[in-house]
Amino acid sequence: LDIKFLGGANEVGRSGFLLRGKKSILLDYGVKVEGNTEYPLQAGRIDLCILSHAHLDHSGYVPSIYRSSFPPTLGTIPTLKLAELLIEDSFKLNRDRHEKPPFFRREIKSFTERYLPRDYGNEIQLDDYTVTLHDAGHIAGSAIAKIENKKGRRIAYTGDFKLSEQLLQKGAEKVEADVLIIESTYATSEHPPRQQLIKGFIEDVKEVLDSGGIALVPVFAVGRAQELLAILCDNGLIDRTYLDGMAKAATEIASAYPEFIHNNDLLQRAMKGASWIEFPNQRRSALRGGTIILTTSGMLNGGPVVNYITKLNKNSKIFLTGYQVEGTNGRRLLENKPLLIDNRKISIKTPVSFNDFSAHAGKEDLHRYIKASKAHTVICVHGSMDNTTALAQSLREEGLEAYAPNVGDVLKLDFD
Ligand SMILES: [Zn+2]
Ligand SMILES: [Zn+2]
Fold first, then answer.
1. CA distance from start to end of the chain
2. C-alpha 193 – ligand 2 centre gap (Å)
3. How remote is the CA of residue 108 from the centroid of ligand 2, in Å?
């Protein structure tokens, strides 16, 4: 058995890992969305695709495999529904920009028709392999995949995961494996303790509300929007909260599968308590002040957030809630540079704060997870080169076999 790295190796984005043995199994097939869209290398003929979760850097290129073949794609049901939402959206965006689409509508249809939804813990059999999905604690439906052969040898692929609990996610299940393919996004840094982060965030938001300002909270549609909605509800601020943009559709989908949501009743209360913006004229009441506006896109590169950002009163504040990729408006905002909106440069005077509500494991949790997996071989992917190499290096010092491969590399695995 060997594994070819089609993308997402020494980089974040366009994840795609191809296991080639008796059967070919593709682990994720995503796109790099920020800046110029980038695609993974071609996968060739495959027998099964396993989708870890809905985010486009994992799912965005899966329909392209249905150009010439029709293998099943295995994942949870929320992953399918949320991926459909994001893929449709990126498909439309492509068309609006007059870019050549990477696949056609009929291929999206084949993907959804050939999808094999499975709950955590349910096995599927593929020739000599048994595949199971386990909770990854990252977003609704996110999964860690375990592939076991007849001799009981196991490969696990984490996708994106978070070990510690969030309000709406229980945290990743520890899966034992011989070979572990693990994300490395935050292999060299720690996230602030969640309780402390929430406390500071809520205090800041309250201060803005008390002074009649607007708390503008840009969020990623899938995952972050629901978590922030739950945090605001849990802290008694939901009646001040407006929800706008694709965050609404994503929240509706996520909440339709309560078995994949921790504290689902909190999410239900949050959805009932918040004001949903259905028509553009409702935005005026959201902008009257003393309000919280939760909206997409999370990096301010489009969506309703760009309409709001130029209309905030002087007591307002912008609360970024996740990592801002180089070249995005969010990053420009953090660096005090003018934003690019409809090809115009616009300077924003509103103060900005950065709140690290990451849904990824930090350094210590990555090590904890690897230890619990009892893996002897660890492959570090989904991270900048600094992060993957640092993680692989520290694991080698502990006596493990560890790799930080590049895109295009092939690694032979002792698996049969
Ligand atoms: Zn993700
Ligand atoms: Zn990812």
1. 7
2. 21
3. 21
